Amino acid sequence: MMDKNPFKHMRDMLAAKPVPKVDVKHKVMAAIRAKENKEEKVVKKKIGLLVTVGMLVGASSVWAGMEMIQLKNEKGEVVLELEQMSMQEQQQMMQQLSPDTKDQIKNESAEIFKQLDTGEQIVNGLKPGEAVAIYWPLTKLQLESNPNSKPFVDVRSKPFTYTTWKDMEQKVGHLFKVPAEMGTDFKFAAGEAIYLPSDKYDERAMKEEQERTKKEYVVQPVPLSDKLRNAEIEYKGQKGSAFLEVSILDDKNKSGGTLAENLEKVMIGDNEAVYSTFAPENGETVHSLQWVKNGTKVDYSLRANMSVSTKEELLKMAEQINQAK
Amino acid sequence: MEKTEIERLLNEIKAGSLEQYEIIIDHYQQPIFTYCYHMLGHRQDAEDAVQEVLFRAYEHLGQYTYSLSFSAWLYRIAFNHCANVLKRRKLSRVLPFLYNRDQDGRNYVEESIDSNHFGEPLERIWKRLSAEERTLMFLRVLEEREYEEIAELMDKKPATLRKQFERVLKKCKRYLPTTGGVRNDGQKSV
């Protein structure tokens, strides 16, 4: 005999099966954050491109990759990749844009430049080592361009500055070494160490404050992290200055682009390096050497006008930097 | 959670307050898991499904227009996901060489409804129901929802659902345990 009430029977059977408890919140949020970070990087790249295209509208440049040069360490591992960018391609890309797009890019770039300039002014008023997050609400233009735009939070810090290597060494000496003097007559003249600000700012609070007060932007102090973004040192000689930029690479951060016209792989002792020259439209030709010191993750970039040093002098200075203890 | 409260949260999330989505997850994860668990009859698949549903919902939040309740919208995403999983399982039985493994290496040929949770005779009945029929049974029988509510969720007319439910119930009745016995293939043995 069949059951007369299948509804009840089915309900009893389904209800009799206990359903386990589940908590997937952390997994879902982690997946979303991972995706957001990836998108944020893409957005940042796009902003970078827009700024560059904007510069082109104002008669400068946007570029596309041409060829890659790789530097390897003493173990044969790739430590740095540099992509050469082409000026011709910049111009071609720009010509392909419609007049409307050019206008839009120009206007958006103007907004971005204004925000960046304001950020610069705010940082000028800080003490060395202080950092701020600047919250910019979305502008009409940004929303028109992309309804899914996110407000721009500009996080900046004021660099620590030094007039002697001895002082600077106390701060960054555990990360890298440089000589106080090098080449024929180049002497340490000024140094800056820029540390990454912490990303622990309260965007929600800044957003609420901005909405409440209708301020153009909202500034929130943030602590500084202990991670060096980069350091820059000026060495002065009789003919002019040479500049050394130092950063510590991580695994995600070993590729970059250059607008240099000529790239050439050279050796600094047993260390691979890239020698490049770049001739700006209105200025002197600059040459530079970039390398990652063998056995370390320290990325050095030494540059000077060609009237200030010869290629041989630049290579000699690089050797001295590599030998500094 | 009140409709206005959900809408407030969704607006904040759309405006960039990601952390508010945790409240949404806390509120909906168990009901959606329960639904997926009944649809798929397998704990791990159901857990994967609820993650996927909540992740996809966040990704496509911009497309949610408030024309139906957020809960109904989530169930629709969950239904589509579960229907796909079930379809893949079915294909894996028909074409085992092509579909015997998913991207995580899980073998769907070997996998059946989780007998620890869905024992006989429910398993026997459940295996014969389509994704839509399972949804209807779950919502109507277990959750005791009204046809109007189910109609919103399944994007069908209440009257159509009522008829469909009657048909499903008859189908279930054929496989329910009887004193006379029913063979596994659904044919009466006596």
Can you give a write-up of this model?
The complex is a heterodimer of chains A (325) and B (190). By secondary structure, chain A is of the alpha+beta class. Helix content of chain A is 36%, strand content 32%. Chain A has helices spanning 6-16, 25-57, 87-96, 99-124, 140-145, 165-172, 203-213, 311-323; strands at residues 65-72, 78-85, 131-136, 152-157, 160-162, 181-182, 186-197, 218-222, 224-236, 241-248, 255-258, 262-268, 271-278, 286-292, 298-305. In chain A, the strands form 3 sheets. In chain A, strands 5, 6, 7, 9, 10, 12, 13, 14 and 15 form a 9-stranded antiparallel β-sheet that branches. A 3-stranded mixed β-sheet of chain A has the order 1-2-11, with no helix packed on it. In chain A, strands 4-3-8 form a 3-stranded antiparallel β-sheet, sandwiched between helices. In chain A, helix 2 (25-57) packs across helix 4. Helix content of chain B is 64%, strand content 0%. By secondary structure, chain B is an all-alpha fold. Chain B is globular, with a radius of gyration of 18 Å. The chains are: A alpha+beta (325), B mainly alpha (190). Chains A and B meet through helix 1, helix 2 and helix 7 of A and helix 2, helix 3, helix 7 and helix 9 of B.
| CA-based shape of chain A | extended
Reported for the largest beta sheet of chain A, the result is: 9 strands, antiparallel
Q: Show unreliable segments of chain A.
A: 42-66
Please trace the helix and strand order of chain B, writing H or E for each element.
HHHHHHHHH
Q: Specify the biggest β-sheet of chain B.
A: none
Helix content of chain B: 55-70%
Rg on CA atoms of chain A, Å: 26 Å
- CATH domain class of the domain at 119-177 in chain B: Mainly Alpha
Low-confidence stretches of chain B: 95-113, 179-190
Q: What would the principal axes of the Cα set say about the shape of chain B? A: globular
Helix-strand category of chain A? alpha+beta
